[in-house]
Amino acid sequence: MTRVLITGFEPFCGESVNPSWQAASMVAAEPPAGLTVTAVQLPCVFGESVVALRRAVRESGPDLVVCVGQAGGRPGVTVERIAVNVDDARITDNAGAAPVDEPVVPGGPAAYFSTLPIKACVAAIREAGVPAAVSNTAGTFVCNHVAYGLAHLIATELPGVRGGFVHVPWAPEQVPDGTAAALPAATVAQGLRALLLAAAATAEDLRVTEGATH
């Protein structure tokens, strides 16, 4: 039985919900066959989010870690390829902090690639009927902060553990006028279940193009 830790974030920037947590909690409530899934909500706060992630990893002892965050405006579930060692906040986090050009981990590598089989994950999400793509930037806000923090933790302390970050669109209730892309949390959860199964079963990623020109 593969042990999975999935995380989502609390609401931020004045929102009342965060679809990343809505979907993550749904996955834990109805996990895919063969997986034991623990869901933990992270604070949308620089520093504290990685502390909470580290604690969750220690307590759950996962084989696989998938952190999920909201990327409003994206049309589908996007599996992140890379996390960069910089915090550069355009808005404040939930503690009022807005670091500019600060490292996530002082002295750490400039970036880490995800250790998830990202292309196999995207293919599985699409096969589940959910729009998906590879993303080449997780931004420089708390999502990237957690993505980098997770990757650094895996690289330095958790040999054998695989993990990465996934962004999900707004929920429909966040865009009631329908002017931006949105997916119901249940649909996102369906895609995340497919992703987890693919990540647990795939030793070597697919060699197919998912690149971008810009």
TrEMBL record:
Gene3D superfamilies: Peptidase C15, pyroglutamyl peptidase I-like. One of its GO terms (molecular function) is pyroglutamyl-peptidase activity. SUPFAM superfamilies: Pyrrolidone carboxyl peptidase (pyroglutamate aminopeptidase). It holds the Pfam family Peptidase_C15. Its EC number is 3.4.19.3. The gene is pcp. The keyword Hydrolase applies. Removes 5-oxoproline from various penultimate amino acid residues except L-proline. This is Pyrrolidone-carboxylate peptidase. InterPro entries: Peptidase_C15 (IPR000816), Peptidase_C15-like (IPR016125), Peptidase_C15-like_sf (IPR036440), PGP-I_bact-type (IPR029762), PGPEP1_Cys_AS (IPR033694), PGPEP1_Glu_AS (IPR033693). One of its GO terms (biological process) is proteolysis. The active site is at E80, C143, H167. The keyword Cytoplasm applies. GO terms for cellular component: cytosol. PROSITE patterns: PYRASE_CYS (PS01334), PYRASE_GLU (PS01333). It catalyses: Release of an N-terminal pyroglutamyl group from a polypeptide, the second amino acid generally not being Pro. Homotetramer. Belongs to the peptidase C15 family.
